[in-house]
Here is the input.
Amino acid sequence: MNSKLFAPPLQPGTAFYPYAVRDRAPRLKTPSDTQRIRWVAFWPLVALALISGMLTVVRASPPPTYDVSAVVQRQVDAYNARDLAAFLDVYSEDVMVYRMPAAQPTLSGKRAMGEFYQSQRFNIPTLHAKILSRMVAGNKVVDHELIHGIAKDDTAAIVVYEIHDDRISKVWIYSVD
Here is the structure.
């Protein structure tokens, strides 16, 4: 076996030792040095957060005591029955409905919803929504819906409902092309 084909083992301090290891900065020796460096680097950020009021204590909210999926199902059942009173009953007074990607709500308030659904949806005799799938995460319900009657062909949509105090407070509608 030819020994010239194999390089000698790398040793610290030799020219062949990798630069990243040979030239690295010296490590701090004592815990007090480490703590001091961390505090000196961190305190301006803490001061800035305190001054600007951005430092807040975030507490996880407890899960709802009601079934958020049942709230949305009551809404879907009322929609399919074209029962405006029962439909509006599951919404909060200040409900906001967004048709994405719009940044501003399309409908704002229960009254505006009532006027829209009475004149634009519940007067259609073939109106029907079918839930293809549903996912629940905390106080949000995500439905994949197939809506029949509002267009020539069935319309698919992803609808996200946010529920507070047993009422739907926000709705985001994503059309599926």
The chain has a mean pLDDT of 76.
